[in-house]
Amino acid sequence: MLASTARDLTTMLPYLAEHFGDLFGPLRLFTSTLFLAGLGTALCTVGTWIALPSLWHVLPTDQGRAHAVGADGSIGKPVGAGLIFVLIFAASAALILPLRWPYLVVLFCMLMSMAVGYLDDRSEGGWHEYHLGLFDLVVAVIAATAVCRLGQSPVWLPFVKSSILVPPSLFIAGGSVLIWVTINATNCTDGVDGLSGSLSAMALVFLGGILYGIVGHQEISAYLLVPHYPDGAQWGTLAFLMAGCLAGYLWYNCDPSQVLMGDAGSRPVGLLLGVMVLACGNPFLIVVVAGVVLVNGATGLIKVALLRVQRSHFLNKLTLLHSIRVPLFTDVRYPLHDHVRFNLGWSNARVLVRFVLIQAIGTVLLLILLLKVR
Hints:
Blueprint lengths: L11 H9 L12 H23 L26 H15 L4 H22 L6 H20 L4 E3 L8 E3 L1 H22 L5 H19 L4 H6 L8 H22 L8 H19 L4 H27 L1 H7 L7 H4 L5 H7 L5 H25 L2
Antiparallel strand pairs: 1-2
């Protein structure tokens, strides 16, 4: 596996290893990226598990969502748990990761998304969707800029043997769109107890494994004909830390839930999903690791956009959308989890298990095709 020494790190644990490792041998474990990733994941899991029930009494309560199936069952529950576990995530990352500007910028963007989401959770009726969408776009641009570091980025694509160098302007433009979509798709998926957290945690574990064990490993990346990213292990550590936070949160969010992550959690988690995909160097990985999230949430965004265009007299005539009827959008309720609950009578537990199974099996099969058919 990828080994790394942390002599150039300024965080606390590697500092202890560098200066006191000779006095106390076990401290040298803090030079291992794998050990730090495991330790950080454990800290995030246990920290979230302990902190949530102790602090959720200070969170706002859910007011329900219009037109959402089963929304009445969530009214009165603490919402905005992301405020708690994203802070735990950021503190753990600062303790373990090197304090380099790309990681700090991404952490800053996540904290800003958490803060805006929390304010949205607290406000009566929520913020206007255009304001939220604009803010999401701003943090998406900043985060995409941090991933590419304003330099050319090697990107690998499905079924193509060699990678291509993408200029920073194109990377930032495309990466910003991807992150914006993952933020809003993850937010839309947060409507069934345990669903958004489970799908996001699974996607982050897969992405962390790819970053640490494939693109972050020089020999394995060469064998699979994908670019090697020296900082892949550090990005992967971020993915594992958030998976740990989500594991601690899901302990209390399983059906029937005791607490909800709210926009304070779904927005920064979605942002991190997009960032991790960009860090892997293949934008199509979002379909592989989070296809169910996209189908469940992002398709609803398309439907809303089409409805807005049809309601606009000028755009309606300009695009001729008034004469187009697409059954996939006109006859299906979105998010998709609302359709299967309302139209097919699925219970929350059935939605969760089936969606997670589809994502787990689909990710394994698609990942094999993506890596081997090149």
